[in-house]
Amino acid sequence: MPEGPSIVILREQAAPFEGRRILRVEGNTTIGKERLVNQRVVALRSWGKHFLVEMPKFSLRVHFMLWGSYRIDERKEGATPRLSLGFTNGELNLYSCSVRFIDGPLDEVYDWRSDVMSDTWDAALARKRLRAQPDLLACDALLDQDIFAGVGNIIKNEVLFRIRVHPLSTMGGLPPARMRDLVREARQYSFDFFEWKKAFVLRKHWLAHTKRTCPRCDIPFSKGHLGKTQRRSFWCDNCQVRY
Fold first, then answer.
1. Mean pLDDT across the stretch 203-211?
2. Could you mention a single GO BP entry for this protein (predicted)?
């Protein structure tokens, strides 16, 4: 599943389509794609894992789910796009994703303060929301899109390893300093992810995600599907403290 930084990269790559009119629409979506023809793209935005194509009176929301992908100015061989948008200066092809329309202003739909890569990210608000859920597990907290929009499983595992916190720690048990670390690193790692992904070196920087051995302690990692989210976790029982 593409995480928030990957959606920001898509937003940057698709920037040449801002201000352009959609001249052609294809794809196997059932949402009534004809509505998009001749619409002008006012802005390309992102919130967490959502890619947003804003037009004068409505917007298109794209969620790539688990296996979604995109191509700009090329087609994916052997695959039919869920939605293909054609412009005078190129085309945007979206595959294996969920697309739907949003009517009304995006600012009324999205709380940009919870997007870890937004200029309006509010760390204090994130801490307040965490403190309000003392039984929330760390492995679930980081995947809560209402608190950390854009954080996915890779970022979750790497952040918890960075700050030496066990994924089964509760928010009520976290010392204040550790909670500040968790909130700070959720944003910091997202920007690190962004830079590494653009440089095609993201996997080289993984310290915990999918790894077998702790690079700090040189002992085997534990792994399991934890919390309500049941997403894969990788952790070291020696250096990651369970609070």
1. 97
2. base-excision repair
- The CATH number given to whatever domain includes residue 210 is 1.10.8.50
Domain final position from 41, 74, 108: 108
Instruction: Tell me how far apart the alpha carbons of residues 149 and 50 are, in angstroms, rounded to a whole number.
Output: 9
**In what side-by-side order are the strands of the sheet with 83-87?**
24-26, 83-87, 90-95, 69-72
Q: Give yes or no for residue 197 having a pLDDT over 70.
A: yes
CA angle, 52 then 57 then 59, to 5°:
15
How many CA atoms within 13 Å lie on the side-chain side of 201? 5
pLDDT at 1: 67
Specify the DSSP element, H or E, that contains 101: strand 98-103
Instruction: Report pTM.
Output: 0.93
9 within domain boundaries: yes
**Angle formed by the axes of helices 176-198 and 4-13, to 10°?**
40
Radius of gyration of the chain (CA): 19
Question: Does residue 37 contact residue 23 with C-beta atoms inside 8 Å?
Answer: yes
Residue span of the structural domain in which 223 resides = 112-235
d(CA 127, CA 179): 7
Residue 241 domain-assigned? Answer: no
Per-residue pLDDT tens for 66-113? 899 999 999 999 999 999 999 999 999 999 999 999 998 999 999 999
- pLDDT 10s digits, 142-153: 999 999 999 999
